[in-house]
């Protein structure tokens, strides 16, 4: 599986695990909800800085967002 798709699945997994909406994640990282949606669908390739902000907002290490089978 493509790393961008893995990232998207993991963002969705950790967001839902924490009971957050895409809007809440977007607000916490100063990005639009549509950006979070695009990430979750594998349509965006975030910068390293954006990856770090996402990880912080979701309460995980950045590596966790890139790990295969993180949601299993």
TrEMBL record:
This protein's GO CC annotations: cytosol
Q: Where is the HTH cro/C1-type domain?
A: 11-65
Q: SUPFAM superfamilies this protein is in?
A: lambda repressor-like DNA-binding domains
Superkingdom field: Bacteria
Which Gene3D superfamilies does its entry note? lambda repressor-like DNA-binding domains
User: What Pfam families does the record tag this protein with?
Assistant: HTH_3 (PF01381)
Q: Which UniProt keywords apply?
A: DNA-binding, Transcription, Transcription regulation
Q: Transmembrane residues, as ranges?
A: none
- Name any one GO molecular function: DNA-binding transcription factor activity
- Name the UniProt record assigns to this protein: HTH cro/C1-type domain-containing protein
